[in-house]
Specification:
Elements: E1 9-13, H1 20-31, E2 34-37, H2 38-51, H3 59-67, E3 71-74, E4 83-86, E5 89-90, H4 98-107, H5 111-122, E6 130-134, H6 137-141, E7 147-152, H7 155-168, H8 175-191, E8 204-207, H9 213-228
Helix pairs in contact: 1-9, 2-3, 2-4, 3-5, 4-8, 7-8
The structure holds adenosine-5'-diphosphate and deoxycytidine diphosphate.
Binding site for ATP: 14-22
GO molecular function: ATP binding; CMP kinase activity; dCMP kinase activity
Pfam family, one: Cytidylate_kin
Length: 229
């Protein structure tokens, strides 16, 4: 099984709302690298299972869905937002809902689902480099990555970010509801036995609570530069 090919990988792991997706995209853009949004694969597995009428409580059946996932990520330019196509259907927006995130967190607790998606994630490692965002990028999927960053922020800050994001998209939700959902998801992602959310031993932990997107990007690029000198 291919793990390391000499192509550099920057891993960005952390809980929901810590800013991984945003920073992964900007980092990939700055470096001209490829991007892996591993959470999208868990979201797609959950959505596809639901669409096929598969019981999310049935680990074997959900793992079959993960193994046979017919998905394309269409990126026009490296670092630009990608369209996500599931069985020919554009589900870019549908997989981003909080409901889909919660279903993804449920199916992601199954070892058979994680195993089914492992090689698919490693196959994203292509020249000139890869920025990979998720929960276990530094611990399991790319253990040899030369640059690992664990992004965090307080649950309150993360709920506020989601609130602002959803408001901008015209959705009205209660911030207290988002905070509960975030805490529930943290709890499940951190406490599962298989590949739990945690920093790799050699990861730099970056608390983004008090930093802007630009400041976080600068820090990530600095950490990457320091790895090369
Ligand atoms: N450092 C930051 N400061 C303020 N807002 C941020 C920061 N990082 C991300 N955001 C915003 O928070 C929301 C969630 O960020 P996102 O990148 O989707 O997080 P994650 O991928 O970790 O769930 C987005 O609207 C994003 O623009
Ligand atoms: N590498 C990964 C990525 C996501 N997951 C699971 C756990 C998460 O709650 C869901 C959704 O992840 P995603 O990164 O898309 O969610 P956020 O953008 O952080 O809210 O999938 C995982 O277990 N391992």
């Amino acid at each position: 099984m291919k793990v390391s090919s000499g192509i550099p990988v920057i891993t960005l792991d952390g809980p929901s709302g810590s800013g991984k997706g945003t920073i992964a995209q900007l980092t990939a853009q700055a470096l001209g690298w490829n991007i892996l949004d591993s959470g999208a694969l868990y979201r797609l597995t959950a959505l596809s299972a639901e669409r096929q009428g598969v019981d999310l409580a049935d680990e074997n059946a959900v793992a079959k869905v993960a193994e046979t996932l017919d998905v394309r990520f269409e990126a026009r330019t490296p670092g630009q937002p990608v369209s996500v196509i599931l069985m020919g259907d554009d589900v870019t927006l549908e997989i981003r809902t909080e409901t889909c995130g919660a279903m993804a967190s449920r199916v992601a607790a199954y070892p058979l689902v994680r195993a089914a998606l492992l090689q698919r994630q490693r196959d994203f490692q292509s020249a000139p480099g890869l920025v990979a965002d998720g929960r276990d990028m530094g611990t399991v999927v790319f253990p040899d990555a030369p640059c690992k960053i664990f992004m965090t922020a307080s649950a309150e800050v993360r709920a506020r970010r989601r609130y602002d994001q959803l408001k901008q998209q015209g959705e009205s939700v209660k911030i207290s509801h988002l905070l509960n959902e975030i805490k529930e998801r943290d709890e499940r992602d951190m406490n599962r036995s298989n590949a739990p959310l945690r920093p790799a031993d050699d990861a730099v932990v970056l608390d983004t609570s008090d930093f802007s997107v630009d400041e976080v990007l600068e820090k990530v690029l600095q950490i990457w530069s320091s790895r090369q000198s």
